[in-house]
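User: My instructor asked us to take a sequence, write out its structure as tokens, and then describe one feature of it. I'm not sure where to start. Here is the sequence I was given:
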Amino acid sequence: MTNPLPPLKALKAFESAARLLSLKRAAQELNVTPAAVSHQVKALEDYLGVQLFRRLNRALELTPAARAALPRLSEGFERLAQAVAEMRPEADSGRLTVSAAPSFAARWLMPRLHGFFAARPEVDVRVSARMRFAKQGELDRDAERATIEKWLTDSDVAILYGHGDYPGYQADRLIPLTLAPICSPQLLRGEHPLRRPQDLEYHTLLHDDTGLLYDGKAFWEVWLKAAGIDGIDASRGSHFSHAVLALEAAADALGVVTTFPVLADSDLKSGRLVIPFEFQAGLPSAYYLVCSEAAARRPVVVAFRAWLRAEAERAIRGGKPAS
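Assistant: Let's start with the prediction itself. The structure tokens for your sequence are:
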């Protein structure tokens, strides 16, 4: 007769906290409170009659019993996830669910997706525009991991911008990011044409507040500092919660927005929008395609990853989307 197992929820709480060495990060990964994780770990310790953590000042230290159990327990949960994935009716189907930020989904992915439809007409693609977890100014590793965990609970792959340090996941770096002012070509003419950055003084600044939310710095502030431009009040102007809204305002000649040129790719190619100045500010982050190790083995995910990497490479080289 096999020995009865402790409650699965308690085992998972311990595995997450032990792997991350943090109750807070484990809580974010499991989408519960740190108090709930602590309660489950304590229940497991009581069940087993052993201490699993030494709770230091703002840190956790594994006991020998915990260190010995963690690798096999982590492997066990991975195998369990794989088994459940194989049991799902859609595991071997042609369904593919993609989570992405709204602006990236609308401005970059959707204009290209017809190419994947044409190449793989049997695949049922479902795109979900999602908001990520982040308090203002907190694009940190914990927030990124919490976003990935949440998005991948009901999606096969996630596309987001971040640092790319995602242990336990397959992550493909797609597009490096830069910042540049973008505007309607109408603003290159008229009484105060945009010819040099100092001419921004005469135009409304449009703000894509993505920067404030995730990096804690306004995109205009970042670009002006990197370009070495003084004398422009970066705080004035109109604010938009998504790049797609700010870009539409720019296309209507309401002002100049600083955001990722990759999100204006089709409008820049058509001439509906222009980049008035040569300088672009490089960023340490990039867009990544992320999926679990189990999902990465599904044929439909393999095909989508290969197609998306090719599209990203084509975009970097300045080519048109595949038809």
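For the description part of your assignment, you could build on this observation: The first strand starts at residue 53 and ends at 56. Try explaining in your own words what that tells you about the chain.
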